[in-house]
Amino acid sequence: MISDPILLAYLDESLPSQKMAELESAFRSDESLRKRLAELISRRESGVHSVGDIWRRHRLSCATREELGSFLLGAIADETADYLQFHIEIVGCRYCQANLVDLRELQGQPTSTERRKRIFQSSVGRVRNYPE
Question: What global pTM score does this model have?
Answer without folding.
Answer: 0.57
